[in-house]
Design goal:
With 123 residues, the chain is of the alpha/beta class. 28% of the residues lie in helices and 24% in strands. It has a single domain (14-115), classed as Glutaredoxin (3-Layer(aba) Sandwich). It has a 5-stranded mixed sheet, sandwiched between helices. It comes from Pseudomonas graminis.
Length: 123
Amino acid sequence: MQSTEHHSEEKRVDQLQLTDFDLDQQLLNLPGVSLLIFTSLGCSSCRWARHHLPEQSLPLDRLCWIDAEENGGAVERYGVFHLPTMFVVRDGAFFGPLRTQMSAEAIVTGLAQALATPPDELP
């Protein structure tokens, strides 16, 4: 198998799979910037995001995935109506939804805008 790209200095983004049971505890205690992403198996955009977002150079510390079909409590608390849906959390503070396209450029711009607003408590 031959690779045409070499990313020796690229920072790999951590990934976590969260559930109703550990979502709040994890987000409150994780340092840095987390992108919380609600997905489901039947959603083609979600599968694309799951495959491609970890490969992008994004200014965040981790991607936190949560399966919307299996975690109805979190879906209700966060007011998720479509998938995928993303939210920004930094150092336990909630910076709201990230309403952007699923491209690295759009996410980078959206993160900067979200993090420039006053934070709130987690839902």
